[in-house]
Amino acid sequence: MTWLNQIIQGVLLGGYYALIACGLSFMFGVMRIINLAHGSLAILAAFAMFVLADRFGVQPLAGLVAVLPAMAVVGWVLQRGVLERSARGGQLVPVLSTFGLAVVVDNLLFQQFGADTRSLAPYAGSLAYDSWAITDDIYIGRLAALTFATSVLLLGALQLFLTRTALGRQIRATAEDPDTAGLVGVDARRANAIAAAIAMVTVGVAGGFLALRATFDPYAGGPQLIFAFEAAVIGGAGSLWGTLGGGIVLGVAQSLGAQVSPQGFLIAGHAVFLAVLFGRLFRGRFGLRPRAA
Amino acid sequence: MSQLVVENLDVRHGLLQAVRGVSLTVHRGEVVALVGANGAGKTTLLRAIAGAHPPAGGRILLDGTEITALSAHRRVGMGIALVPEGRRLFTRMTVEENLLLARSARRRGPWGLDAVLAAFPNLAQRRQHLAGTLSGGEQQATAIGRALMTNPEILLLDEVSLGLSPLVVDIVYDQLRTLIEGGTTIVLVEQDLSRAMAVADRVACMLEGRIVLEGKSADLGRDAVTEAYFGLSRGNTAQGAAP
Asked: What domains can you pick out in chain B, each with its CATH number?
């Protein structure tokens, strides 16, 4: 029963990992950009919601609604101001510039908010600890279930958006061949900026749920980037549904690892990530490669 | 009236100057064929007209409006469509998605999804297949259909017969004939000289980035074009340079 519970909790945790990996996977799969500032930008969104809740008494979920448009603007500016310019310098330069951006964001947050650890849980009423009893041994947290549902909805909505809408097709076409996209009338710069804005909205959602379910501080972005990376790579980077699977695999591995030994939480997650990565290497397929079809 | 005017156009690929001072005028409803050896600058000229390659000098005018500095997608919106060499389909998207993309230009006109599928019946049953899985002829039909979906006023065709069997090339050119009769202006690059001269009102022959011969297809003899094609009239200088 304990093991079953660990698996269930792992799957729910995987929902969060899929959420944080969603934007990374979207940017890599669709725009071919590895955004190393991913985690830091999620923390930026978390701090924005914290300020709204702490200073202005805005409920975290309402605060999220206010922060998401701001994150879309961040995405637009990131694409036009940083990624588009650095992409002219070759493939490696955007990676380096997002790394630099992560350092800047982390330290600006540190300067502004100090080293204190924060959480949005106190501002969200009983959401952080409410749960449903499934059996006597198994409880499902409301927040965990909400996170999982949000993650499935977000990934599903993104998938539908990319395949069913004109704008989604434009974004995919621009990712595959920006030159030819222009020749059929697609404004490739606009498509890329919109894609970056969408990616940052998902980063904002992930940051909000991180702040609700756990604590964060100005330097918390790095670990989030690692979890996002692991979930995205396990799921086959660039595939949105794969990202959900990757998040769940990572979450279950960590839960089961923690059941074996209290220190096994992180190690089990990293071990599964490495196993998947090496498995792909030996099959001649790198984990970080765009989807073939 | 002159619909498309290219004045003194220079286009560079880095240090290589692919198009040197080319001037070309295309009238409404006209079919102009660009011929010339590989590397003569035909593709670069078409790409510069379509806006995919910014020129280093000179001007391009569409219906009297200068478009030299406009990006490719703006030019599509003004009615210039290029069927690029090698088709350049979005291989990870379906045929239908490839076609629908061309709606991005938001140009109204007779060519919609149904009209294209009616014009290229072989695509109708393949519309949900990924473009990368199509045969060469089907890919070319998709590429032409995609350009038509923008409802162009000028269609630029870059070697549409490349890599296709003679039978399929006949089918493609039959489709073009209906377009030409409909009054669409066409500038095409074609390796097959007799086909180019048969379909075009005018032929311009390029050699080393310049137009060396230009005239009505009916007036130009095959020999004159062949001579210009290989640069035979400059034989003396060529000999002088040879070891």
From this structure: 2-238 (3.40.50.300)
